[in-house]
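re the bet — no i am not wrong, look at it urself. input seq straight from the record:
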Amino acid sequence: MTSQDGAIGSSPPTTQETGERRKSGRTVRKPDVFAEEHHEGSLLSNGSGKRKRQSNGDALLDLDADASQEEESDEQSEGSADEEELKERRRQSRQKKSTPKPSKRAKISNGTGTTLAIRSAKVTPKNVSQKARVQKARSRQSQVNQEGLYAEVFGRGNSGEDAAAGWFQRYEQNNVNAMCEMVNFVLQCTGCKAKVTVHDIEDVDNIPNKLGDLQDEYQEASITDYPLISKHKDYAAFRPVLVDFFSAVIRTMHNSSTLYEDQTLFDNIQIWVDTMSSAGIRPFRHTATLISLTMSTALCQVARDLESIISMSRRQAETEGRKKKVNQARVKSMQQKTEADEKKLATVENILKDEFDVVFVHRYRDVDPKIRVECVSAMGNWIMTYRSMFLEGQYLRYLGWVLSDTVAHTRAEVVKQLKLLFRNPGNVGPLRGFTDRFRSRIVEIATRDAEPGVRADTIELLDRLRDAELLEPDDIDIIGQLIFDSEPKVRKAVAKFFVSNLEDLYKANIEPIGDEQIDSLMPKAYDSEDYLSPTRSWIKFKCLAETLKAYDGNEEEGNGHRPTSMLVASNMDSRYMLATQAIFSHMHELQEWESLAGYLLYDHSAITSDADDADPAAALQGIYKLNDGEEAILLEVLDYTVKLYLIQTVESQTEGKKKGRKTQASKNNVHDKQETAAYHLSKIIPQLLNKYGSVPQAASAILRLEHLLDMDLLNELQSSETTYSALLDDINKQFMTHSDRSVLAEASVALLKAKSSEPVKEAADNKMQEMWDDILNTLQNLLHDQNSEARGTLPRNLLTEVSNTVSRLSSLASISDCTLFLETTMPASSSKKKQQSQAANPSPLDLLLQLCRRGTVDEEVEDDVAALEDDLATCAIKTLLFYFMWKIQSIRSSITSNNIHHLEHHPDLLTDLSTHRTTFADTLSEITSSRLPLDPLRLLSLSTTLDLYTLFSTLRHVRPAKESQHLPPPVRNQLDDLIPPIPSPLQTATLQTHDRLEKIFAKKSRRKLDPSSSVSKPNHPEPAENDAPIGDSSDSDSDSAADNDDDEDDDGAPDVAGGGGGGKDARKASVLLAEQNLCEFTGKLVLAVIAGVVGDAETETGTEKMGVRERLCRNRMRLGANYREVLGYLEDKREKLEGKKAAGPAGKKGAGEAMGMGKGKGGERKGEEKEKEKEKERKSEPLVLEEDDIRDDELENEEGGEEEAQEEEVEEEGRAREGNGEDVESVMGD
């Protein structure tokens, strides 16, 4: 045998040569080209055994041509073979012996003479990386009855490799029928029941026309769902099984070399699938696109394996060539094998380029977002699988372009793929150009995207860019400021990024001094008993305070306002607290909260050096020295840190219990931590108040720390009584010396908490009684010989002190029964002159009623004085409402317990209560009539009026607890007299104010009201923005303001946000506040209607008359979900039951009544039903503020009310184009 016979790639013996050796001597017909070509994956016809070695790919490396050449080569090179070659030969010999000889395949003549031997795709080398486990097709009765390839793939439990191998065997027997079966399989995967025939397969030029006919049949069948997106149980795991099958088809074609030697097979599949990927109907387009992308992904895996084989072959050839005695035959064999694999790789790359140009380039911007997501996901897989081809700018740019997709899910998929790419450090270099080009867009998504989930994922991507040093300093600061974001998901995502910034700042600060020098000056760990000693954590606390202050200042300078502070609530956590919550788990120094407290208690004013000092000790002090404003920030951080620490301590015990590891030792450990925290807090709080108590913001934060103090744990320690007394004294001092409302609110909560704790309840009651006496005496002294009723009669300084005193009364009345203190006549002074006028001394209750009258508008009062007068009247109104609440509660408690002797023997108690109630209601009515419709004090007066009458209505059904006991008729009659309805003028004013609130909110949120809401009488003009000054009580003419209200309403609402400056954040706050005012006022009105104090008689609204219920519910389906939920309380149980019964076609009448229409007419009920049906068609019922919801005035004036019509036209045009079979593509430009 010659040496040429041993070369890889040599042709097998021809049929003529074989025939000469046969005994029969018969001639054999020459096979077609398909059989003549040599396939490395097929079995040779001469049956000669070849020595084979597996590599990382699917192909096998043939070392010699036949056994004789192998023996000859072994003999020639045996003398020069090294130990490694000998081991390799022994291993190959064992493999050859252990490999079973394949059985011969029978030749089947079908006109082509095809004799292709198939190796299943599942026969892969062990060293190939294992792929993700694909869910196996489940055998279902509905799919088992299917025919052909579809049943084999989905209905009979076969794996993708088995189904692909079976189809390939049928292709050997009859390629046309097998191809027809494959095309019908693809059609059936789209949900199409029509099929193609053998003639359609043979007529390649008619494929577009045939697919057009199939689309027409598909549309005539009116199929709305297709398997790829169906939620039906029959199509569970449809997508992974489909992907697995076509991946197996490509692997089988590669293993059998059919992909390279019979390109007609892949060309036929490609032309059908690629043509379907441009179909006008989505089922065809989506399914075909997925199949094409799947085949391209499998080809990328094949290319990667071939690339690995080529690289290994070259290294082996180089190793062989460096030997002293080179085996030339072996080197030549390796070179020929490398050349063959390079040709295969070139073929695969050409196919990939064709598929990319024909399918991906058009479908990555398809009108269907699902298809765009498929393309983005496939591109990410290609880049990670076959880096040498796709990790280039010409392919990466498509991911950057899709970052501007209009659908959040598509943008999220791009970010997901980029995160996977940047996970590999080897990709950072090739991705640098891509990052420079699209970094600004990625930062924009992280800061401004409408979807919090997309923003959070993008921040994680930016964190990896930061680790790769691909971010600019400005970008790092922009992302770091998101620690103040309003979305919890965004704050949680940026926490790690923020802490990394702190670490960099910490390293930069200590770098001039050096770690060794710092170790000698301060310890690394802190001592919980000596938390006043400096540690390394102090430097990080300084970095934290400095960074938070800088980011807060940058936001104020950039936006002109603080977005998170526009909405103010007493129980709202500050932005620093929310930031602390996000970074607590990432910054372990915060768990050492005693060290943070010691850092705050340290006297930083004594530090005179700075960080540039030559002395290391002095420079170190300059590094951790706190500047102005940083103490207040760290106090709020301390407050939330302690809270999170205590929560974490309790949760650790709960988690241990869930895991079955709760032992007595763990219980004792948790108890010890809680006890130690309580002890340290009891020591730290007084020291902090002593140092920072004069600053309102700091005092509020420290008082919140007192809320976390567990008095019961403190009672177990020694000197508990002394500690109680000291804490109560500190709280009392803060309450009596501060006028800031936040300090008063926190001090009130602290007192209420102390009052609810059994160990300190008595001491807290005594302390609160002292506070009542002090405040009332102060009020008496301030108003002595002063006109308490007339507005503008008090000096400015005195007016401020009176307002602050009444504010303390209001806070104290909210947590303590004030009836006894307010009803008792204040004692006169000991001087004789004052003793003579003792009879004229009013009670505190009378004095507060007089102060309420100062809320009546007087145009001669200056603006700043008017603001103080309004504040005083507001505090007095709130205090009086608390008084009536405590009074009604006392009466109800007495009646329930049948302790009514004082009511029977002293009927003047209820008479005086009625008199005070009437006086208070009349005062509120005067304030209401003197102010503009949406003035804040008018809103407060009307809301208080509704609360007052609703409160007294609770006495209507009060009875003794025991059924045998009854109220005496005189007491019952007096109670009934206390429950009158709201006077008609006040009801009219209340409904007018409600209508104005509706219109203001509809205008700000761009919603349309019921036509009857816009009809008003001539003497009731439309509400202008100056009619609704939330925070501004100017008395400008409403008619003149109506002409300019659009500019004032849209430009930033200075009266809403509490300050100047426009912007989208201020406009969003304006919308939210308008909704809050509407819902709060409507809620009080709904309670009044339910309580029966607001009559349901017909009232005139424009040109119609309707009841109060109809009037409230006319815009129920138009103003969002919150407003609808508030009005839902108007439905009683009977109406809800009727609404459920009317769910069917015959229940339309009951459904109209169940919507709160009461006894409305049938036409009105039908109208309400139509409104409900229209509302269901709307895509967004609740108020969702996106970036596009706040538009410029010029654009709004140009567009008018045509926006919705334009959107509908665009959607209809897209559906029409899709229905006409057009190639629906661009939802975004390049």
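see?? DSSP finds 56 helices and four strands in the chain. told u. also The beta strands are 52-54, 60-62, 1099-1101, 1104-1106. so pay up
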